[in-house]
Amino acid sequence: MALFTEISRNLRQIVFRNAEQHAIPSMDGALSPNDRLDACRPIGEPIPDVDDVAEGSDGALYVSAGNRVLRLAGEGYGERRVFTTLDGKAGGLAFHPDGRLLICVGGRGLLARDAAGHERWLNTVEDRPLLCPTSVVATKDGTIFLSNGSERHAPEDWCHDLMEKNHSGRLIACGPGLDGARVLRRDLHYPNGLALSSDGRSLWLSESWNHRISRAAIAGAGTGAWETAIRNLPGYPARLATAATGGFWLSLFALRTHLVEFVLREDDYRRDMMRTIAPAFWIRPALAATNHCLEPMQAGGVKALGIHKPWAPPRAYGLVVRLDAAGDAIESLHSRVGGHFHGVTAARETAQGLVVVAKGSARLLLAPGDVR
Amino acid sequence: MSITTWEQLSRSVTRLRYRWSLRLFLSELLQKQWFEPAIPFALMVALFLYFSLTIPNYASVANAQSLARLFAEFGFVALGMALALISGGVDLSVGAIFALTNFAALAFVNIFELPVPLAVIATLATGAAVGAVNGVLVGYLKARPFLTTLVTLIILRATVNILNQGYATVFATAAVDSDAWDFLGDGSVLGIPVNAAALVVVLLAGHMLLSRSRYGWHIIASGASRTAARHAGIRVSLMLFATYAISGLLCAAGGLFYAARQGSSDSTTGVGQEFAALTAVVLGGVSLGGGRGTVGRAMIGAVIIFLLSNGFVRMGVPGYVSSAAVGLILLAAVGIDVKWAKNRGKAIQKIYVNPALVEITPAPSIEAGSGTPFAENDRLLGVEAIGLDQVEGPEDVILDRQDRLYGSTRDGNIVRFSGPNFAQREVFAHIGGRPYGMQFDKDENLIACIGGMGVYGVKPSGEVFKVTDETNRSWTKLNDDSRVRMADDLDIAPDGKIYFSDCTTRYEATTYALDVMEGRPNGRVLCHDPATGKTRPVIKQFHFPNGVCVAHDGRSVFIASTTLCKIFRHWIAGPEAGKTEIFIDTLPGNPDNINRASDGNYWLALVGIRTPVFDLAARKPGFRLRMVKQIPGDEWLSAGLNHGCVLKFNEAGEVLESMWDPTGLSHPTITSMREHKGWLYLGGLENNRIGRIRLKDADPTWTGFEAYWGARRRDRR
Questions:
Q1: Which domain holds residue A132?
Q2: A12 domain-assigned
Q3: Which of A146, A158, B154, B392 is the most buried (most CB within 10 A)?
Q4: Nearest by CB to A297, which of B392, B625, B642?
């Protein structure tokens, strides 16, 4: 059986030479490991379940954290208050050109909220509930693009979606009034991030489970043909954000490991694991390593002579990558194994600098001034 | 059939499937030196059986005698070829020398009318002389063997043809009137044709020469690597010269017997012999690359080729078909020879690891507040550090009567700490290898298990001596297990016998992680008796035996199985002596060393904590196999090694309490602990320190040495 699998895999690689390569690329060049993310300064106290951040026209930061959206203002974003409370987990955030805040609410759908507190919901598209809204972006002319990660799981159950090897994500477009919603793309591998290029002419989309970023020109309320901008990333891409200098900030919430990729190939083992073991103790990528006794361990992760090796196979990792306008990585910020800030779900430029959301460590970070 | 019976059935089928592994058998078989000629040998036997069935009267004494007489001359030629190949060259002139010496023998007897003994010597000398010419060219003038002997072949062949034209008729009409000559031609010794008997004698001598003499070893060394042989001081030129001369001599022996038997010489004598001989010896397993081959293998190949061509003739197959067949066999043999020599190691490596089904009982809960004695706590958080950053991986720790602390570290040392607060560090002994478990004998010698070496002792003066490093080989295993591969922990019974664990007989101290992945009973428990100096297995098959501890009463030994997560009890005295039983069936982690506690109980270190995914992998051998093959070693799943845990159990097999370092910052991977005067000392395989923690209710005067050899021993009560 194993022999057959091996032969068929080898044959596939010979016959379909241009198919997705599944070997995990090594992290070199612009992705060479460093400790720059660990050098970032946390903003205030920990924020449990922090997920995304958006900068309002008032210069304040709006931060989704659990059932709430917080508003952080002032020098160093030291002033913190609750902006709104929701009946679901807040995820992706974006401001509409007309000043409304667009909030992805897990299990519910998309919420548009204006300064006066008026709310409008988008809950279903094509009669199917928006279970897993992950990211939202609005163009200058008011069209809203929304990614729905999965048809089966809410955002907090992303790991189930990965281990079930689902690809049921959708890309949705709707008008400024959350009207006329229609599906632009289906069967996506957990679309997790959306961003406009700095000239506003093209839409970029990250898919986590196939480690890929694709782009298309915006044409009215839809898009042109899609092409793959980056394939085979070494981690699972989360949100994308436009950089002022052109290009993007890409967050990767975890790195791929050989063991996880192996388990994804081992269907029998994976099914039994999901059936009999609590998700926290699965072989899986995680936003944070808990050091719990029952958590899986890999041979390279043993603490030797009092040191947890930074190159150990990572269960959790912190990584932000800056891409140029063509999609090539030009620099990166890492928090390696044994580092402090893992599970980065978003990184966005603000007036005070680059703000990084380390969800695994429940921290909002402000990058030092040299990161632009 | 009900569902449960079906499940039981499928489970036992799986169990059987993974217990007996053909791959495992094959991987160990391929490693054996004797396995290589086994295949040609089987081919030879099969060929003989086939012809016995298809050709009437084939398997008869008379036929065997006639076959032996026909074969012997070819045997000599093949032997000559084999020698040349083993020396790293080739001798293509064997057929031509055969023809020349055939002619020479006839000429000596018929034309010069020499007495037969003189003719024999002259013939052999002729062959040796022609061989010596080859030898000078190849050995001293460094000519390529292939071209040199090819040229010799052409010249000799032409010479023989010219000579034949003048003398063939002379031989045909001449009749030698000599009993000795006739005896050489068709005589027998004890029913064996004389030429075959001579061949047997030469083969025996050749085998002794090649495998037991300095000359033979030097030839093999020169063939394997000429440069290395020269650097080692071997006179390569002389060796090659001698080899070709001997090859010529052997061909001459063949030619002589042929002359005596046939009494004629023509242009076809010995034609094609060089290729038949080459095919034969390569088929037998003499490598074209040089340096590999034996006399026996060459003969097996020669017999195969001879039987085949002879059988073809008898079955009426045309000669050209038979030649083509031999040619194809040569091609196949050469191909296999090259590929096999190059890839054998890789083939073995690919199939060596064979994970088995590990039927592990469900782990007890370790959740804090779960109420089990295993519940996680933080009692080891306050451990004091001794020798911080001065020790590398103290696998075991022990204290002597002077309260000095010893640790066995990965740099091959036994480190000793003494003085107030153990501030004074010194290397007590450097043994090399990887020292693991330690124990003092009654003379205060420190006996230690050394991974990769065996069991060694250190006298109080620091002098190192070997205790044992070998045992008797078990006959049922292919792998030679006479050496102690990875002695891990030991303990000493009241009678002085040393019981120790040898984790694995399939892997080494550096690759034991593969043994854990494999989950087979590859380990064993051995007992060394200082009185007789003998080391004998006590338990021959054991799943990764680790900690060993003799019970307080000295009547049984506790043995930890790291992969099964169980403790076993082996009785060494009393009515149950010799029996092994499961003592603790279920542990939440992988047990390591076991040691005595002052209150009559025992301490047990858990080196790893069982994780649910690792337990699931234990039940899926195919998953582990593919993991080992497909992903790098650092990425393999392992038990949770980053948490420290020490347990205490009593004589009834009940676990009483546990002590945890939940952070794993100070003491992950705890492999050992020793109680000494109210303190517990902790050692760990990967630690940069030795830990020490005060025990609240422990006897502050109790020491291990007193409990084994002093006033506190309990085995005499």
A1: 29-293+309-366
A2: no
A3: A146
A4: B642
* Residue B2 pLDDT exceeds 70: no
Q: What type of residue is A191?
A: P
DSSP B443-481: T--EEEEEETTEEEEE-TTS-EEEEE-B-PPPTT-SS--
Higher pLDDT, B462 or B667: B462
Asked if residue B8 has pLDDT above 90, the reply is: no
State the total domains in chain A: 1
* pTM assigned to the model: 0.84
> What ipTM goes with this model?
0.91
Q: Is residue A21 part of a domain?
A: no
- Measured between CA atoms, the residue of chain A closest to residue B609 is A293
From start to end of B10-84, where are the E strands? none
Spell out which residues of chain B touch residue A281, defining contact as CB-CB under 8 Å. Answer: 611-613
Taking 80 as the threshold, does the pLDDT of residue B168 lie above it? no
Residue A304 at interface with chain B, using a CB cutoff of 8 Å: yes
Give a yes or no: residue A186 inside a domain: yes
Q: Residue A105 in 3-state DSSP?
A: strand
Give which of A178, A259, A188, A261 is closest to A226, Cα–Cα. Answer: A188
Whether A298 is in a domain gets the answer: no
Burial B326-344 (b: 16+ CB within 10 A, else e): beebbeebbeebeeeeeee
- Report, as an integer, the average pLDDT of A3-28: 75
Element (H, E) at A199: none
* pLDDT, tens digit (0-9, with 9 covering 90-100), for B569-614: 999 998 999 999 999 999 999 999 999 999 999 999 999 999 999 9
pLDDT of A62-87, one tens digit each? 999 999 999 999 988 999 999 999 99
d(CA B72, CA B201): 11
pLDDT at B1 over 50: no
Kindly state whether A115 is in contact with chain B, defined as any CB-CB distance less than 8 angstroms. no
Q: What CATH number has the domain bearing residue A180?
A: 2.120.10.30
With CA atoms as reference, the chain A residue closest to B688 would be A305
